[in-house]
Amino acid sequence: MPLPYSESEQKDIFQKLVTLQDQGTPVPQSRQQIADQFNLSLDQAIEIERNGVSAKWPPLS
Q1: What global pTM score does this model have?
Q2: pLDDT tens-digit readout, 25-39
């Protein structure tokens, strides 16, 4: 299933996910929070996370 957000929007979502994790939110919980906040499935949230890590989206860049 294609992601319902543009790449730019996915980068914003990824940044929010990384921020949650940096603040100490456990990875599974941060993924679920992002999925709930942006009306994504858990698999879609994980896909955005993987895309961001592999492409080194901000804040990783």
Answers
A1: 0.93
A2: 999 999 999 999 999
